[in-house]
Amino acid sequence: MTHYDDPNPIRPGADDPTEPVEVRRFGPAPTQPVPPSSTAPDSSPYAAPPVQPWSTRPPVVAGRPVQPARRGLGGGAIVAVAVVAGIVSGSLSAAAVSTLMRDQPATTQSSQAPLGQNVSQVHLDESSAVISAVQSAMPAVVKIQSTNGAGGQGVGTGFIYDADGWILTNRHVVAGSNQLTVILADSTELTGRVYGIDTLTDLAIVKVDGGNLPTIKIGSSADLEQGQLAIAIGNPLGEFENTVTTGVISGLGRQIVAGSQATSSSEQLNNLIQTDAAINPGNSGGPLLDSAGQVIGVNTAVSQDAQGIGFAIPIDVAKPIMQQAVAGQPLERPWIGIYYRPVTKQLADELNLPVDQGVVIDSSGNQPAVFPNSPAASAGLQEGDIITALDGDQIDAETDLAELILPHKPGDTVSLQIRRGGDERTVQVTLGTLPEQP
């Protein structure tokens, strides 16, 4: 699979599994959906890009309309949640305790009491953790009502992460809006404005005037584990405010193509958290919490034709733009300007590569492997180069190049270790700014 950080993330699809595809987490945002004229709840103008089959490669051929609700992997279509046609993530978990009992009659009664107490205690502890987490986070979770120039309306969710009125939500919740109303948990209504749109992910920053607002605790998504408790808060259907759902983290590092039946664009989302939350329209942009009430993800997508399959953007991906907004800086992401494919043992054998880890710079369709006038071109990188490390950190199946670039800022200089033919060399690259969508 080829990854890239090109400003045109939607590439002609192909059935060939070796066909290069987009860079994980390093492609700019897709074309914004065109708001539909209908104001019906199920065709919100701020719904995410169109429904696409469950796929890890770009589903849209340029100039060719997207067929809605095509099925794949058991018919699971992925949609981004917004307004009344969107997504949220939440999860449901249950603790189970298995016990080994002795079969001697003399010890049966004495062993049953403590075992029964242990089981009850496990359920009580989990319930208490959820209640405590929700009570801590709920005051900072907000409902976002958006209106566009054509009179279309939508509803989504967001959360206050800074007391001066900084709110994180999904891009598709606010895209195309000319008026935002932010409703706090205590029913206070504030006027919001879009501070900035992320060029890398389905995220946006909204600002409201005010001080000493309730804030949510920000956690980390770096050390998440499958099976751990996950809690989601949002506004399903735009009607049932402050709804809580619980579950577990079902998977990590997921890659999907999300969209909406109402538009003809789509978006590839990468490195997502999968959760078995009960997800409903209107929850998009809401927080996914851990058992301590800390945000670990931003709910963003769900499979409409399946149950218990929802997705969230890891909070660590959002942190750079959250900090930029509070500092009054424009939202921007670092960019190298290459297409690449992760090197595996199979790919190394197929291409007769000298190493079996890293990433190989490779073209995608009609696109060049190295973008003209990009930081990579200026540094002299070439198609076929294998990047094995960044600033001394090895690139492998567990650590992708995009992950290592993400914490940096445009203008930073990074050191790339590369293999070209039989030679090893170090190349200095000054990162650029990921271009905005056309």
Over all CA atoms, what is the radius of gyration? 23 Å
Number of helices: 6
Number of strands: 23
Instruction: Quote the beta fraction.
Output: 25-35%
Shape: globular
* Uncertain ranges: 6-76, 81-117, 260-265
For this structure, the quaternary state is: single chain
The residue-averaged pLDDT reads: 74
- List the secondary-structure elements in sequence, H or E: EEHEEEHEEEEEEEEEEHEEHEHEEHEEE
Structural class: alpha+beta
The biggest sheet amounts to: 7 strands, antiparallel
End-to-end separation: 25 Å
The level of helicity is 10-25%
Fold and architecture overview:
- It is a single chain.
- The protein has helices at about 105-135, 170-175, 315-325, 345-350, 375-380, 400-405, and strands at about 5, 80, 140-145, 155-160, 165-170, 180-185, 190-195, 205-210, 215-220, 230-235, 245-260, 265-275, 285-290, 295-305, 310-315, 335, 340, 360, 385-390, 395, 415-420, 425-430, 430-435.
- It is of the alpha+beta class.
- A hairpin with a 4-residue loop joins strand 13 (about 285-290) and strand 14.
- The model is unreliable at about 5-75, about 80-115 and about 260-265 (pLDDT under 50).
Task: Kindly summarize this structure in a few lines.
The protein contains 6 helices and 23 strands. The protein has 438 residues and is of the alpha+beta class.
Topology:
Blueprint (H helix, E strand, L loop, with lengths): L2 E2 L73 E3 L24 H33 L3 E7 L5 E10 L3 E4 L1 H4 L4 E5 L5 E9 L6 E5 L8 E2 L10 E6 L8 E17 L6 E10 L11 E3 L4 E10 L6 E5 H12 L7 E2 L3 E4 L2 H7 L7 E3 L13 H5 L6 E5 L2 E2 L6 H5 L7 E8 L2 E8 L1 E2 L5
Parallel strand pairs: 9-14
Antiparallel strand pairs: 1-17, 2-14, 3-4, 3-6, 4-5, 5-8, 6-7, 7-8, 10-11, 10-13, 11-12, 12-15, 13-14, 14-15, 16-23, 17-18, 18-19, 19-20, 19-21, 21-22
